[in-house]
## 1
Amino acid sequence: MYLKITPKKLIQWLDGLKAQAEVLTPAKVDGVWTYTLSDLQTLPQHYFNSRISPKSLFFPSLQALLGWRSSDSSLQLSSTPPPDGQRAILGLRPCDARALRILEPVFLKDYQDVFYSQNLLRTLLLGQACQAQCEGSFCEEMGIDPQDSADVDLFFREIPGRYLVKVVTEKGKNLAGAGDLFEESSEKEWNAGQREIRGRRDKPLFDLERVKAGAGERFPDEDFWRRVSDKCINCGVCTYLCPTCHCFDLCDLQMPGQGVRFRCFDSCAFPGFTKMAVHNPREEKWRRYRQRVNHKFNFFYQNFQTVACVGCGRCVIHCPVNLDLREVLLAIAR
Amino acid sequence: MSAPIPEIKKDDLVGLVKSLFQEGRVAHFLAYQKGTVKFKTTPLIAHKEEDLQGLVVDDFFHSNLALYLKEIKGRVGILTKGCDSRSLVSLIKEGQVKREDLYIVGIPCPGQIDPKRVAAAASCAIEELEEINRRGQEIVIRVSGQEKTLPKIQALMEKCLACHYPQPLIFDALLSGDYVAPVSPITRFPDDLRPKPIAEKWAFWSGQFERCIRCYACRNVCPACFCPRCLVEENMPQWVSPLPSKGDNFVFHLMRLMHVAGTCVSCGECERVCPMEIPLMKLNEKMAEDLRELFDFVAGVDLDKALPFRTYRQEDPDDFIK
Amino acid sequence: MGAKRETKEKEKKWEPKILAFLCRWCSYAGADLTGSSRTSYPPNVRILRVPCSGRVNPLFILKTLRSGMDGVLVSGCHPGDCHYTAGNYNARRKFAILARLLEYVGIDPRRVQFSWVSASEGDKFAKVVSKVVADVQALGPNELFRLPQGGQTAKGAASAHE
């Protein structure tokens, strides 16, 4: 189903939405694009993508899980109540939206993570088509269409004078129906709304199928992994900004007579990630890097039939030493 | 020193490094190559002659290559700007590297270009910048097909504006050309936070440390942070919680600063790599100024001067103690 | 510390809680003398004996504030009198830098104070402690970056996870 809306009516619709939900939009906070409550009344302009992926709104970097109080005679446990309150996220890019789906087998399959599932249930996902290729990105190589998405509730394409809207889910349909602000449109109009992506590469960098096969084939090639990971400095920027990374650590805050157990992000790039009392299987940097690439492009695919990377490019741009995953994937695909 | 320091032209650099490999003078060489992102270079770590392909000398040498000396031991050659050479001096003083193991090719540094500042000065988005080139004391850029000229002072990294050490302090060879005195007369990094009342300072830093995600890019990119096992990795007992909460972030950053005091040379890498754009240089510069004022100490300048916490004077400032 | 005692403390009016790191050879002995001379000083101070003021890692001071104590006092031998010759000289340099750094990030210097108190200065110790307690009393409870405290459910802790 396809709809369209004028910018003026979009403002009205967003105002109506704000009355029943927290509307988060990208805005510059301290110089950094962040999803936040803002006065934005239109889709964000001159905006590529947020610094930290919106994954953090569903799987936060700091999450209290449970608390305890102990007295002389007893121990009381209390679980953190699941997050509540309706939300809407405006300006979500197809790559980040896909990432939310990729994380579903992690958080919703064998064990339901109440925080992730509640956050998904209570959030309306409003996607926005990209108009320019993000530097460092390779979303199309990962099978993502920058101008379309099936992973959101409503997807917006901006054309001169109006927004075209694709209705993806029932939830989206119901919310778009409210207030009669959207007009009907057609698939023809929707297709006509496709534009030239500014700065788009004219041909793909690599073939994903070859990457998937190559990562495993190259697994025993120590020289290769040493070479490609040589300049890595073992920080955690790539993992923390990544929309699909999901490793976490548990940490207790202990105070007299009570405490809280938290979950926080962890990074496979850290030297201590696999450290145990006796042994660290990934002591050397090249092993950790090999694991990172294989986890995302090989093992995750084998387990869940999807690659755990959406090609958003954040790791490429923000790596302190410009270790470019695209170059590594290209080398693997050869 | 009996032999004169060789002066190397840019184009002869690769030849020099190849001969260093051949003579066994170095087993590794640290330099720069073109980055995969516009206006960036990336470290080139050569372990043999063949790895030198792609070596460049340009205006985007942002990285401080001394950081790799934490990992790469033995005889190492390194391309070094003025600020980086101070890191080398610091590391030698800290016993992390031996002077005789290093072959230092110094770059008399005219200042490195910051594409973000160029974009701001040209009032355009960074994506619209097509080319940035140095022409004497000016920077020539191309934005959406149009050529524009900017004075150097608007295009350089902020840390370069207050630089007092553009010429490397220790070196075995020097790239010829371009050494130019500091571009502006400011003596320190401008900081409007210092005169503010204490509650405002707290509000400012609270806001900053709330945003820290504890990615440790600042720590890992820092040549002064060479501990094999960082304080935050200790969990028996847990001195600093790994949780990215405001209070724990404060403890992490303040402790990191205290730990690098005397070795931090304000190279600015921590601030450059922070994905949340936290102004870490404000803290480093304050620390450096305090060390200078209280103990007449400047990091990474004098190989023979004792590190500030390894020595003391009878007359050390005492007035804050009751 | 049991939860029972914690609740009783909460019910009383707020009193500053100060942690004092005292060097074993001078300041701790000085504090001892204060006691044996029956000189009064405010009971708000908890004493932690260290071998030397130089043993005090800046991390201890930060952790003290993080744990919710309202103020810190570090006290050692007078310069020149350190039992370990130079421990207090080293401490003096560390604390000079730390004090300025804390002030720069917005922590009032009256919360973290330093003194030289010798083993014979029982009176001085009492005066120093009284001054620190009075200063911290004026500043109010430490809300800076303490851990979430008292009566927090997991939800409360999550929202106040400072």
## 2
Amino acid sequence: MRLVRAALALGVMGLLSQPARASDDDARAWLERMSEALATRNYVGLFTHTTGRQSETMRIVHRVGRNGSTERLVSLDGSGREIVRTLSEVHVYLPDRGVVLVEPRTDQGSLSKALPAPGPQFDALYEMRISDGNKLLGRKVRVLDIRPRDAQRYGYRLWLDEETAMPLRTVVADGRGRPIELINFTQLDMPRKIDSKEIEAAVDAAGFRWVRSARPPPEPRPMMAGWRPTRLPPGFRLVASRTQVIPGVALPVQHLIFSDGFASISVFIEPGSPSGPAPSQASSVGSAHAFSTLVGGHVVTAVGEVPLETVRDVATSVVPVQIPQPPPGVSR
Amino acid sequence: MTDRIREQMSALLDGELPGDEMGLLVRRLERDEQLRRAFGNYVLAGEALRSPSGPLASARFAAKVSAAIDAGTVEVPQVRPARPAPVRWARPAIATAVAASAAVVAVLLVKPAMQETAVVAGGAVQQAQRALASLPIITESSPTPAHSQRLAGYLMAHSQFAGAIGRRNVWSSVLASDPGITRASYEFAETP
Amino acid sequence: MQTQEPRDAEPRPASGVEQSDLELVRRAQRGERGAFDLLVLRYQHKVVKLVARLLRDPTEAEDVAQEAFVKAYRALASFRGDSAFYTWLYRIAVNTARNAMASRQRRPLDYEADLSETEQSAVASRMSHSDTPEATALSDEIHATVNRAVAELPEDLRTAIILREIEGLSYEEIAAAMDCPVGTVRSRIFRAREAIDRNLKPLLD
């Protein structure tokens, strides 16, 4: 954990940063600086999240303590929805439904290796460029472009604060380069200390239905052990496989995580007959997509920040591994 | 007697009615449409006095809001789309528990080309998958609230492995919209 | 760094109203629908006015205002009384209007544009709006009817209602100004409203 000297006034983005380890023109270095900043810094901000149909204002608080990071994201536009990530759990408060979804936190320990990190093949998948940009929030910024080399994943344009590498604005573009999502900070502070009260939910959840995952079983169920997609966009590799319990789903679910170093796709295999989705159903949630389909009595769902066609192709290619298949990652 | 209730209503409008007198009044108002109309006119009087012109809510406005809450639907005003309008799905009102409904209001996007029985031989599976994957996505679907909740669970489980930017984007989307509202294609048409 | 605050152009209600709103919200949260209906009735015109100011096409103002109230109802559990109820409702209405505008406009995202809130609402308010002829005519008539009815009131009733609705004074303050008991103030205001109601009935039924 690197020490950072604080500026004179709290709440001013004047924290002195470490000098860049690589040349400033190295786009990859900027990406790493950004990831590091998001993971290791305290920050509090307001941003607008805009997709084609709507725009919402959110408040984010990210607090880094001795035992790990905690986070809170609140919708400010009246729904009262918020997400709180404590040290051990993630709570999704949905006041308009009277429901709180609870999941165990899984990004720590050995599973932190599953977080995306650009590997040696990254340049084959994405073209990266760093350039100067107009000021944002009165700060000098560099513009980091991450353009995919195929249409099966998204591109990103990130306006990074020159001093701290925090992304002040992010535009997500689809495989054809059309912008589909915007996250734009209208206020951002990086205080030295954040009161732990700032991570507490404001919702009075008394009387809400708490939907929790049960404790996962010690062993993955043998009959689920062998599900794999046979079609993945180039560069996606399996980075983790686990048994997950999803709030509201009775039986444990197999969760496979694939990543190309930047984007991630999850494949969930749920045993038994479906009580929820009709067979073959697509969903859009912001720029993320999900596609469900029935395979051999199981509900297979692919989810990711990738175009709809990509999750559809992945989901519809999942098979139980009894059938000899080429390994995943082979391009179409 | 009526006069007394109406005078209480007038005091309530001014914030000058003691809390313990409110219960009876609220219950009377729930049942009595004339009383509600009168309250509406008291409010209207103040608005009209304060500003000489400008838009006002119509006489049926409050009744329409009440009906919309009862129906559990949200009418989103939109320009009439060139495509057929999406099927609207019902959300339970705030006081009702979220229940998985047996009647799924859904339009199937793509019919699966294969049976959901035991695993079939490799060639047939691949053939079926190719057929499935080549079908276009044509309309929007309307999942039940239980499906949306499951989808939210999947999204959250996925988001923990998505990296900071992906996680923040997914979380924002979960907070901003109801997971499960689908669209067949993006709304944006022009490149910058 | 910019701080974005809602442009609260409406005057803050007297504290008595805020408290009575809170009590109504509490009742609504416990399931008393009548309490929420009262809140709708109380703020319907304010919200319609606000939304009409923000939308480019104010004929949709009523639909969008309706949606805002429904959203507020669904989100009631999250309202804790840290702010006035109307402040909270105001924010929901602004957001609902912005979303309605965005869904209509299908504005493409512009990399270089500054999409800050102030700019959006500034643009919206610069646009002049025109109601439908029918709505304008009715609204004008309502205003004229109310003002005429008030002008024809006996002086003590007229003074009482004007001090309350235009000056925003509490009953106690009005009692001091008119040198009479609070109960008399309450009765005068009530009778003034009844007279206005009698004049409005034929217009609105």
